[in-house]
Design goal:
alpha+beta
Length: 289
């Protein structure tokens, strides 16, 4: 890992078909690739985060983004998971540090950080929460994860992330060959682009987003409650949480958290509209018989 090795990967515990409609709402250019049994990985292009130096210092790289990579992809992970039934895990690195951020539903994201030489600087309890939310073995897997939080002069930050991926392999994670933590974002995209199952994810406007989202609701890939009181309660909660989250992200100029708020708003509004539409259609069908 070097000072220019800035990059990230977003692991989603769902197949690409399920991830696709939510990923488009991030309004970012990414590649979507299968990553093992029941997992997908999103490979961002790397222009949304600050690569070196604080913003306003005039470096060309700094002009490409206004936030550090961990904050950007942490917001993306929250956006992917907050309106879904599956968790999202961001793996990130910036030359000085590496880390992970796990988002699952409305719960507070949990993460861990290592310095470039592998020195752990996170909270040990985070790994237990991490294991519980991913359904890992509370004894064997937690022991391995806790080992990543202890000092080890032979393990740098890349090694720590590979150790984390090894544990996730027991849940089905299998990154395609060449997608290696620690590599720069442009190299990761180059590798992902030649994979036969890679799919380009791009923002095509709100009309396309609404259409894709409605298709996903119709298939039931966004959750088990698409009709009835529970669907309305969930959609209302998404709208109620999405507006302040969007405003908070705008105040902080955080693209990732703005995306999280917009995902909630869109899914909540569509959920309410879909529930009402299907309810009226069912009522009309019954009255016509």
């Amino acid at each position: 890992m070097t000072a220019t090795s800035v990059g990230a990967l977003l692991l989603c515990r769902a197949d690409p078909e399920t991830v696709r409609p939510v990923a488009r709402l991030l309004q970012e250019s990414m590649l979507l690739v299968p990553a093992g049994d029941g997992w997908s990985v999103l490979v961002p292009e790397g222009k949304s985060w600050r690569k070196d130096g604080p913003p306003g210092y005039g470096s060309p790289a700094a002009e490409q983004g206004t936030e550090p990579v961990d904050r950007v992809v942490g917001g993306w992970a929250a956006a992917l998971a907050v309106g879904s039934t599956w968790p999202a895990l961001a793996l990130w690195w910036d030359g000085d540090r590496s880390g992970c951020t796990l988002a699952a539903g409305f719960r507070r994201p949990v993460g861990y950080v290592w310095l470039a030489d592998g020195t752990p600087v996170g909270e040990d309890e985070a790994m237990r929460t991490f294991a519980a939310r991913l359904g890992l073995d509370p004894v064997l897997d937690v022991q391995v994860l806790e080992g990543l939080t202890r000092a080890d002069p032979e393990a740098d930050a890349d090694t720590r992330l590979r150790g984390l991926l090894a544990v996730l392999g027991r849940t089905g994670v299998e990154l395609p060959t060449g997608l290696t933590p620690g590599d720069p974002a442009d190299r990761l995209r180059s590798v992902a682009a030649i994979l036969p199952q890679a799919e380009q994810i791009e923002w095509a406007g709100w009309r396309d987003a609404v259409r894709v989202e409605l298709d996903a609701v119709e298939r039931g890939s966004l959750g088990p409650w698409v009709l009835g009181p529970r669907a309305r309660a969930l959609a209302t909660a998404q709208v109620a949480a999405g507006l302040p989250l969007t405003l908070w992200g705008a105040r902080r100029r955080s693209g990732g958290w703005i995306a999280a708020g917009l995902v909630l708003l869109v899914q909540g509004a569509l959920g309410l509209a879909y529930d009402r539409f299907r309810g009226e259609a069912d009522a009309a069908g019954r009255s016509g018989r």
